[in-house]
Amino acid sequence: MRRFVTGLRAATWPRAVARGLFLVVVTLTGVWLGVLLGARTTADVGPFQATLAVTPSVYGGSEVDIPPLGSLMFDTHDGPAHLSISMQSLDRSRTEQLITDKSAISKASAHAVDDIADGLVRLALRTMAVSVLAAMALAALVYRRMSRVAVAGGLALLVSAGSFGVAALTFRPQSISEPRYQGLLANAPAVVGDARKIAENYSAYADQLQKLVTNVSTLYSTLSTLPVYDPAPGTVRVLHISDMHLNPGAWTIVRSVVQQFKIDVVVDTGDINDWGTTMEESYVDSIGTLKVPYIYIRGNHDSAVTSAAVARQPNAIVLENGITTVKGLTFAGIGDPRFTPDKEARAGDSLLTDKTLDQVRGVGARLAATIAAQSEQVDMAMVHDPVSATNLAGYAPIILAGHTHARSVASLTPVPGAPSTDPSLLMVQGSTGGAGLRGLESGTPLPLAMSVLYFNTPTGSADGTRPSLQAYDDIHVGGTGVAQVFLERKVAPFLTMPAPTDSPAPTDTPSPTPSTTRSPSPSLSPS
Known about the structure:
alpha/beta; Purple Acid Phosphatase, chain A, domain 2; 13-stranded mixed sheet; six-stranded mixed sheet; 19 strands; 21% strand; disordered C terminus
């Protein structure tokens, strides 16, 4: 008899566990349905009627949708809840007040934090309420027992409240300084805001939320006219492009970015041509239309003919183991030692020999010697292949490169004997020309990649400090024609930057690849 009772108890344990797990599944299903159907509310934010919603998510984060301008995305928190704020409609009377009253925008933005906070509180309470009700309703349909319905309601409250708790505990207020923008290229600077102001003022979350609302309110209050993009005093904007590869459409994008982002100087780390022939000389004539200084070094697809054609442009500066100062920033640059215009025709040759390795690294050593021979500090060094940066680490705080057709940012440990013991920031650009005609070989055209670097006041400081990088925007242009842009901002001190790395391996000209996702270290292996 005792054995029978013991066996009966042992048999009920699996059933109890199964029933408990099934109840949890029913509860989670109810919570999921409740969130999808009712986890949203509205709030008046400045001139807008905003819709706030929570959706299930693995990664969390927040998104602000500003139709028709685009979307801003922020890594604000972790957890299973994603916050969406959609500026859906304008109140006519409040909008008219913004247009007629100059102080109305500042007044509206001053209350933006409280408006959003009140909306978030209502959203949290509503989300928990609909989660509990949906879970209890589903449990009633499944079990038809009040005890199980009550348990399901309690579990739903615990899950929903716990999700908001995780979001609150992992809240990162500094994330608003590094937005990701997706929308119209012309609107990107106005929506994201000025880099230096962001770098200096984003310590307070409330102030920056007000700035964001102010930017968007200004856009709407001017109706069809874009607002004036007022740069912070002394900020110098450098546009880094590379690997144009004869793509004529790329010049349209570059000109648009130069105008919209108020670029002061353009730097090109090579491969502007494909074969380096005299027939390609006319392609570089568009440099003169940019109306800003254009600093260029040769890539492995550029010949002496290409360099001469660039040098003839009225605003161009060609660096061949040389140094120049433009807009208060000092640049050092050297061209690639190889000239390999037709990779396919030389498929039988081994381009990654020890001799090639010495050549590619050697140009970096030559440029380092040139930098060391002059007294003035260099702010940026320019090479084509990232491998050339190996011997430059410590000779310039920032090293710009291209060649790989993939965006990457990494920190390089200074070489022995370098004048600085601080790591150098190696910034490898993707292909601004989408790899040109080569970019179509894979069947999926590459996005056009470029970056805007923001520097503080470069000269005139009494203590002799040098300019420093405050922020940078990575821009990928794709979609239909030139209309769509993906912009991601990073602000000093670049906390997501990887630890210093050793020198990379040399590369041949990469074959096109549809992926341009920024990796934690340079993507240097040929495709």
